[in-house]
Amino acid sequence: MAGLKSLSRRQGEIGVGDYLRSTMPETEFRASHPNHFRRWEDAVVDGVSLDLIEADFGGGSGNELQGDPPKFCAAYSSSALCANVFGPARSCPGWLHFDGLHGFTEFQFEKKLVTGLGGTPPNLDFVATSPDSILAVESKFLETLGRKVPKFADSYRRAYAGCGCERLNAAYEAVAFGEVSFSSLDAAQLLKHALGIVCYRNHAGAVPSSLYLGYVFWEPENWRDFRIFRQHREELEQFSALIERSKVEFRPLSYLDLWDSWRSRSESRTHALSVERRYRLTL
Question: What is the enclosing helix (H) or strand (E) of 78?
Answer without folding.
Answer: helix 78-91
